Amino acid sequence: MNMKKTTKKITTKKEKKEAYTAKDIYVLKGLEPVRRRPGMYIGSTGTEGLHHLIWECLDNSLDEAMAGYCKNIELYLLAGNKVKTIDNGRGIPVDKHPQTKKSALETVMTTLHAGAKFGGKAYQVAGGLHGVGVSVVCALSKYMRVEVCRGGLKYAQEYSRGKPTTKVRKIGNCKKRGTTVVFEPDPEVFKEIKFDINKILNHLRQQAYLTSGIKITIYDQRISPNFVYNFYFEGGLEAYIKYLVNRSEPRHNNIFYVKGEKEGIIVECAFQYAQEMEVLEQSFANNIYTEEGGSHLTGFRTALTRVLNDYARKNGYLKEKDENFAGNDVREGLISVVSVKLKDPQFEGQTKARLGNPEVKSAVEQVLSEGLFDFLERNPQDARAIIENCLLSAKARKAARAARNTVLRKGILSSLSLPGKLADCSSKKAEECELYLVEGNSAGGSCKMARDRRFQAILPLKGKILNVERARLDRILASEEIKSLIIALGTAVSQDFDLNKLRYHRVILMSDADVDGAHIRTLLLTLFFRYFRDIIERGHLYIAQPPLYKIQSGKRIEYAYTDADKEEILSSFEKQKISNPNIQRYKGLGEMNPDELWETTMNPENRILLQVKIEDAKEADHIFDVLMGKEVFPRKKFIQVHAKKVKNLDI
Fold it and tell me: Where does 32-231 sit in CATH, by number?
C-alpha cells in the first residue's frame, strides 16, 4: 500500500508539472503591468520612486517649454499627499484619437507608449515621453485629475489607479491655455508618502538653469505660512556652473561654455576647475538628469582629455618624454555640466538614468573639442591654471601609485603582515566578523579585554587621524594610522579597492562621548566617505553607542544612552522611592571596565549600533566640504546656524 501511494503521488506531481497550457499565460491590459511591477517603471517604490512621479509630470511641462510654447510652470505640494502641476503650454489634445476611438487625453493618460513624442512634428526634442511617463503616474495614483485649456474651453477627466472614473467633459470657458495635473500617490504602492522639499527644490533649480528664460514656482501648502520659491535664470549653463562653484574657490577666472549642433544633436557644455579635489559632473539629455551618465558624458571626458593633452604638448607643458595626462588627472577639481538635446533619446532603464545613443558621443566630442581649443587659445591665463592643475594631479597620481604599491606589498602577505596593534578575531568568515576602530591605546586595552575573541577584532588608533579632506592620496598613504587601517580592512584603496576582500562585514567606529571623540569620529567618517564609500553603501559601517551615564543605587545599576533615557530612569527610581542615586557621566571609554564595556556596548544582545547610510551623496559631499575643507568661513557659518542645537558640549 505504501508503494501504491508513493506511485500515485509521483504521477500527480508529474501531471502538475506538465499542466502548462494557454490558460497559464496572463495578458495584462492597460496599465496593469505598471501596478504589478512599479519598480520597472519608476525605479523603486521608496523615496526615489515617489519623487519620480513629480518628475514625470514636470517633464511634460518642460517639453512644452523646450518646444517654445510654455513660459511658466507651477508646482503645488498640497495637504493630503496631493501634488499639482500647472503649465501654460498648448494643453494635451482632447479630440478623438483615430486608433483608440477615445479622447486623446484619455489615451495619453491611460495607455502606455502613447504620445506625441513617438512620431510626427509636435516635438522635435522631448525629455519625458507622453503616455509612458504621465500614464505611469496615473497608474500609481489613488486619485488623479487632469484639466486642459484649449481653444477657449476647459476640459477635465478623473482617474483612479490607471482607470478613468469620469469621461472627458467640458467644464467651462478658459481664456488661457495649458494643462493642470493633480495626483495623489497610491498608499497601496508607496508604504511611506513623504515629499522632500529640498529634493524637489534641487530638481527644479536644475531644470530652471537648463531651460533659461522659463519661470518655475513651487508652493508648499502643507505648512503654514505657505512656502513659495521662484526660479528664473537667463544665464543657462554658465549661471549653473557659477552656482555649483560658489561653494569653493575657482582655479581660473573664466567659465568655459560652448554650444553647437552636430547631425541634429544640440550640445551644450560648461565647466570650471575648483581648488577642491572632488569631481562634480552632471549630465542631461533633453533636460533629463542622467545620474549614471552615458554616451554624452563619455564623449565629454574623451574630448577633454585629448584636448588638454594636445594643448599641453603644443605649448611645452608636457615634454616628449612625459606621459600623457590620464582621465583622472584632467578631472580633478572639475565642476562640469554637459547637456544634449536630440530627437530620439535612448535611455537605459525606465527611470532614464543613462543615455545610450552612440551617435551622441561623437557629437559631444566634436563640439567640445572645437570650443575648448578656441577657449584655451583666447584665455592663456585660464589655460595655464588648468594645465598646472593637471600637472599637479599627475604628479600626485604617480606618488600615490608608488605609496599604494608599498601598502599593497605589505598587505598581500599572510596574516603576519597585519598591523601589530590589531587584536584580530579567530574567525576567518568575513560575514560574522566585526572590527572595532577604537580611540587610543587605553580604550583599546579595555576593548581587547571586553571583546568576544571569536568574532570581534580591535584596532586602536593613536590620536586624531589625518584629515583626508585636505590631503592627496600619497600623503594619506604615508600616515601610519591610515595605512594600518587599510591593511586591516584588506580591501586596498583607490583604483585597487576591492570590496570582496573586506575582512569584516561590520566595521564599527567607537569613540569617546566628548568633543574630541566626535572629532575623531568625523575624521574617520570623512576617510570612509572619500575612499571607502562602497563600504558605507553596502551597509558595513556602523557607529557604536556607549552609554552616557551609569546610574546606581545599591546593587541596582542602569545605563542611559541619552539624556531622555536618564530622565526616564530617574523617574522610575522616584516611583520606587529610591532617592539620591549615584550618577556617573562617562566621557571616555577608558572610564569603563571591561565588564561594563561588554555589557553596554559590545554584546550583540544588548548594544546599540547606528548604521551609517548615505541618503543624499551630493549633500553629504557638501557637508564634508563645509566641515572638513580648508575654507574657514563656511565652517564658521555652519557653527553659527546650528549652535543652538548643541547639547552636552564639553568645555
Answer: 3.30.565.10
Q: For 95-149, how does the pLDDT look when each residue is reduced to its tens digit (9 = 90+)?
A: 888 888 889 899 889 887 555 444 445 555 555 433 357 899 999 999 999 999 9
Burial 446-473 (b: 16+ CB within 10 A, else e): bbbebbeeebbbbbbbeeebbbbbebbb
Asked if pLDDT for residue 18 goes beyond 70, the answer is: no
Give per-residue pLDDT as tens, 421-436.
899 999 999 999 999 9
Phi-psi group of 553: left, alpha or beta (phi > 0 → left; psi -120 to 50 → alpha; rest → beta): beta
pTM: 0.69
CB 45 within 8 A of CB 189: yes
Q: In terms of CATH architecture, what is 412-546+611-645?
A: 3-Layer(aba) Sandwich (3.40)
First to last CA, the chain: 85
CB 472 within 8 A of CB 397: no
Beta strand 280-285 with 334-341 is parallel
Q: What is the DSSP letter of 458?
A: E
Query: What count of other Cβ atoms lies within 10 Å of the Cβ of residue 141?
Result: 23
Active site residues: 439, 512, 514, 516
Q: Which CATH architecture has domain 236-397?
A: 2-Layer Sandwich (3.30)
Mention every residue, 6+ apart, whose C-beta is less than 8 A from residue 500: none
φ/ψ region of 220 (left if φ > 0, alpha if ψ in -120 to 50, else beta) reads beta
% of the chain beyond a pLDDT of 90: 51
